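EI: anyone free to look at a 322-residue chain?
SC: sure, send it
EI:
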Amino acid sequence: MTNNTKGALLALLAFGIYATHDVLVKYLGGTYSTFQIVFFSVLFGFPAATLALMGDRTDGNLRPRHPWWTATRTVVAVIGAACAFYAFSVLPLTQVYAILFTAPLLITVLAIPILGEHVGVRRWVAVIVGLCGVLIVLRPGATALGPGHAAALTAAFCSALASIIIRKIGKDERTVVLMLYPMMTNVVIMGILLVFTYKPMPLVDFGASALIAILTFVATMIVIRAYKTAEAVIVAPMQYSQILWATAYGAIFFNERPDLGTAVGASVIIASGVYIVLREGRTSSSENTPVLRTRSRFDSGTHLRVSNFLRRSARNRKNTHK
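SC: here you go
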């Protein structure tokens, strides 16, 4: 078995675990507020995050070198987390994924003003085609659009903006700063809002909240291993397998059946996203590669980021060889 095959299989396993995480979010969302779900998922994730971050050998403190960019990324990550978790709670899983998969398209657009990226005609066409896929999924005027759809779109935009900011400041900021600020802010803000929305949880639901954190950590570690095993352009497109898991899980647990519009629109969005990821894999096509190639999940500030750990590993190797 080649390294690329091993990496692809590892990625498929990881994204299956991520999809299981979202099933638990949807399950809890039927009873509890979004703020409560985000609060406990991040709270239970702190021990694993702390252990993972202990390996950061970079000298420094917890003061961000780019405070305004760090603050902006923290705000959009917190908003994105609440919106994504809410969308999973009220919409069919496949619809949420289809909308969240627009993040690579939005990243391509946001890279122009923030990173100074030049986007050629082919990538612009891919973006436009992908956004047409969103219209196919949403079918404005033909179907009733609600807060869940707005939340999913907001989550996709926030994820894209957070990813672009990471690319802009990631070389200067410590991994611990980039990860802990959004997580701590999520806990504080969601904790305050929890005062008004808290609902007692039986032990089984507390267990589900803890399992959300565990699944996220395990999936992240597997994705990191996948990127270290195989080429990034092989691993990154595997994220779209989540919609297959969502279709299966939706049918099994929530009696959801994606309609033709969702299936067609999702296919268009995925095709556009895969094209952009592969296109940016060519060094001649993107000055800021890899903006998209190490993406694994929507950036919500509730979990560890794959790209930060890969960047940290590269730094550690560089320092070791000095």
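EI: The chain has one domain: 3-321.
SC: 👍
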